[in-house]
């Protein structure tokens, strides 16, 4: 199933909150949640390494600290493949460390957002980010 947002987040509470907020904002939004880096690549790529094109989302929200493969490792793979290179990837992390920001931008992240701690700011951030990437940003043609 084609999705609007692929949310890759190892914290089930954060993922559930994001989905709930996004669905309240737009009930027709299609969101796929994956909780681990390796599972993300298994979802998007077949065993031969080819992209499963009907599963490609409009935007990917990616956490940095994931089990098995980290966010930067997933990002590197996504940005190195022709079929996934132009999918916008938004890093959503609790880390504001300069080395994390530099690593992610150097690997091709399109945006880096530090997750707010309080609910109101988190809700506002996830809604405005999804609106921008789904409604206003014009992506490269595939």
Describe the structure.
- There is one protein chain.
- This protein is α/β, with parallel strands linked by helices.
- It has a single domain, classed as Rossmann fold, CATH 3.40.50.
- 42% of the residues lie in helices and 15% in strands.
- The protein is built from five helices and five strands, in the order βαβαβαβαβα.
- It has a five-stranded parallel β-sheet, with helices on both faces.
- α2 runs parallel beside α3.
- The radius of gyration is 14 Å and the shape is globular.
- The relative contact order is 0.18.
Key words describing this protein structure:
142 residues; alpha/beta; Rossmann fold; five-stranded parallel β-sheet; 5 strands
Percent range of helical residues:
40-55%
Distance between the termini: 17 Å
CATH fold call: Rossmann fold
Lateral arrangement of strands in the main beta sheet: 2-1-3-4-5
The CATH architecture assignment turns out to be 3-Layer(aba) Sandwich
How does the overall form come out from the CA principal axes?
globular
How many domains comprise the coordinates? 1
Overall mean pLDDT stands at 94
Low-confidence stretches: none
Set out the fold topology:
Layout: E1 5-8, H1 12-25, E2 31-34, H2 37-44, E3 59-62, H3 71-80, E4 89-93, H4 98-106, E5 111-114, H5 119-136
Parallel strand pairs: 1-2, 1-3, 3-4, 4-5
Helix pairs in contact: 1-5, 2-3
In short:
With 142 residues, this protein is an alpha/beta fold. Helices cover 42% and strands 15% of the residues. It contains 5 helices and 5 strands.
